[in-house]
Structure formats: C-alpha cells, structure tokens
Design goal:
With 257 residues, this protein is of the alpha/beta class. 33% of the residues lie in helices and 33% in strands. The strands form 3 sheets. Strands 1, 2, 5, 6 and 7 form a 5-stranded mixed sheet that branches. The longest helix is centred in the middle third of the chain and has 27 residues.
Length: 257
C-alpha cells in the first residue's frame, strides 16, 4: 500500500487517504503536554478538540492536505484555555511553513498571478504569504548583518539609484565590506540622510570609512553621524567631474581633441 512520508517529526500519522485529486493524511501531535503561554505551567488536561485542514507540499504532483487534530488545553494552574502550538504550522495558518517557503521561492521565478493560477490558491493569499516570508527573510538578513558588523570595522557607501523612469531617485546605503544593502530613503537632503544613517547603522563606533559622492548634504550628515570616520569621494564621480571639465575646455579651444 502506498504511504506518504511526511518528514514532520512533531506529528504521528493516524490515517492516510488516497483520493483521485489529492492526498489526505490525518495527524496529531506526539506531545501530550503543552506549556501554558500565560503562566508557563505544563498541563495535559484537554479542554476540547477540533480538526484543521492544512495544505502541505505536493506528492507525485498531487496536493497533500494534513487533517491536524488540534487540542485546546485548560491550564490547571491559572485556569486559562489555550490552543496547542506547532513547529511546522504558523498560528491560525492553513499552510505548513515549508509550503509557504515553497510558494515564496516559486514566485521569485515568475509572478504571484502565475503561481496563484498554477496551484489554485487565491491571489491575495499567495501575495500575503510571499510578503510574509519576504519580511521574515529580511529580518534574518538584517540580524546576520548586524552580528557581523558588531565584530568588525565598517566601510559604508551611499549612492542614488533610479527607482522609476525619469528623475525618481532614492538614496541607498550599502555595507561595502559585505556588499549588502542596509536601507533606502526617497530624499537626499541632510535630515533624511541623517535619519537613514541613524536608523540603519546600529554600531556607529565601528564605521571607519564612508564612500560618497560630492553632494554636500551627504557630507554634512556623515560628519554629524560619524565624526571620526574617513570620508572618501567615489572615484566614479571624480572622473565624471574631470571629464566634464575637459569637455568644457575642449569646446572653447577649436581643434583640441
């Protein structure tokens, strides 16, 4: 008989159903005790039970759903009622965490609309899952960067990038050592630049170098935020200014190439 291997250690498989369009796997949590989120007391007294249908990764190109037995416990210490938690399923979610990650990775290669159509999931749901996972990954990325930055000297870089066609630009702050974007701001004035530096650089004492262009508000903000850092003008902008000066001279002197 065909059997689905879940590879979800927290669950015990109670029953499996193979249907024409999908698989159903009945599971329940192995642990018989839960810690009360209100007082921290361990309890095994079950207040009631209910079943939640959860979508998981497909098996052999067919959707797989978990019918999860969800227990609600009553704490013997504080008398509060609470629902059991799961490592592989988020609170109030109808998809496993690994399925959410799978959808996120699928969207990266195409569009939310295409993934919504392919897996027959509402557009709004795929969109919500995508941005939720993206937010979690951004927080993890920031945490890793902050940990690395706390242990070594930093070289920052600021530049502007076009975010729309025309003249819509944003100031981008980079960690030049890590090659990582730390933050963006839509203005280039002194106050907004200082805000960007203050909010995104959690270890200002570690900043030793800041690479910028010749924009004066950048220079003032850097001096204010990191008074002991060395400011370095980006060579690209220096070459650009020199080239423009040469062009002006060349235009004034006929025959000069």
């Amino acid at each position: 008989m065909f059997s689905v291997s879940l590879e979800l250690p927290e669950f015990a498989v109670v029953n499996q159903e193979i249907l024409p369009t999908h698989y159903l796997v009945h599971v329940e949590k192995k642990d018989e005790e839960e810690r009360c989120p209100h007082c921290g007391f361990l309890t095994s007294f079950v207040h009631d039970r209910r079943t939640r249908k959860i979508r998981d990764l497909s098996v052999l190109n067919k959707p797989l759903y978990l019918l999860v037995l969800v227990k609600r416990y009553r704490c013997r210490n504080c008398n509060e009622v609470f629902t059991s938690s799961f490592e592989s399923i988020g609170s109030h979610q109808h998809y496993t965490k690994r399925f959410c990650l799978f959808l996120y990775e699928q969207v990266l290669g195409t569009t939310i609309q295409e993934i919504s159509r392919k897996y027959q999931i509402p557009y709004s749901t795929v969109e919500r899952i995508f941005y939720s996972v993206a937010h979690d990954k951004a927080k993890e990325h920031e945490s890793v960067i902050q940990e690395i930055q706390s242990d070594q000297d930093m070289t920052l870089s600021m530049d502007e990038v076009a975010v729309r066609k025309g003249h819509s630009y944003e100031t981008v702050l980079y960690d030049a050592n890590l090659g990582a974007v730390m933050g963006m701001h839509h203005n280039r004035d002194f106050d907004s630049t200082l805000e960007l530096l203050s909010l995104k650089v959690l270890h200002p004492e570690k900043v030793k170098n800041v690479v910028v262009d010749m924009w004066d508000p950048f220079h003032k903000a850097v001096r204010k935020a990191f008074p002991h850092a060395r400011m370095i003008v980006d060579k690209y902008h220096v070459v650009q200014k020199v080239t423009q000066a040469f062009d002006q001279v060349r235009k004034k002197i006929p025959g000069l190439n």
